[in-house]
Amino acid sequence: MIGRQVPNTEFIFREGGEFVKRTSKDLFDNKRVVIFSLPGAFTPTCSAYQLPGFEQRYDEISDYGIDDIYCLSVNDAFVMNAWADNQQIEKVMLVPDGNGSFTRLLGMEVTKLNVGFGSRSWRYAAVVQNGLIEAWFEEPGRQDEATEDPYGETSPEAVIAYLQSQIS
């Protein structure tokens, strides 16, 4: 994945009662960002650890030359906004990949029919510089109908360790 351009796709946000379309270029061009993707809003690991962890460590991560942090999930804008409100997220931008286009084009789509989720994203994180993947983090065991939901490789701590290694 390192060196690969992020997929060129469209995201549909919900802002001020209106649908707002943004492209990959809007989100990634001329920026260095951290993106992390997870199986679903309101799910246990995502809500207890991953999203709040990145929110709590946002400023520390930003100090390493990161312009934005995005949390992406194959959920619609209404769900992502409700989750941000529920989690009191103020810094991390929640990106709705409601149609799963970005996830599918990146090759990270998995089916989770066994738990009633349909198609979702496998858990990953990346550092993206001007649309190019600079660093890649992925949980082990990616497969359809996975019974495990590993978490560790894509934690804020793992991303911070990478960012620290780049300045020494």
In CATH's first tier, which class applies? Answer: Alpha Beta
| Strands ordered across the widest β-sheet | 5-4-3-8-9
The CATH homologous superfamily corresponds to Glutaredoxin
CATH architecture: 3-Layer(aba) Sandwich
Order of secondary-structure elements: EEHEHHEHEHEEEEH
Overall strand count:
9
**Roughly what is the average pLDDT, rounded to an integer?**
97
Beta-strand percentage range: 25-35%
- What's the CATH topology name? Glutaredoxin
Radius of gyration: 15 Å
The coarse overall form would be globular
Topology:
Blueprint: E1 10-15, E2 18-23, H1 24-28, E3 32-38, H2 44-56, H3 58-62, E4 68-73, H4 77-87, E5 93-96, H5 101-106, E6 109-111, E7 119-121, E8 124-129, E9 132-138, H6 156-165
Parallel strand pairs: 3-4, 4-5
Antiparallel strand pairs: 1-2, 3-8, 6-7, 8-9
Question: In a nutshell, what does this entry contain?
Answer:
With 168 residues, the protein is an alpha/beta fold. It contains six helices and nine strands. The chain has a single domain (10-165), classed as 3-Layer(aba) Sandwich (Glutaredoxin).
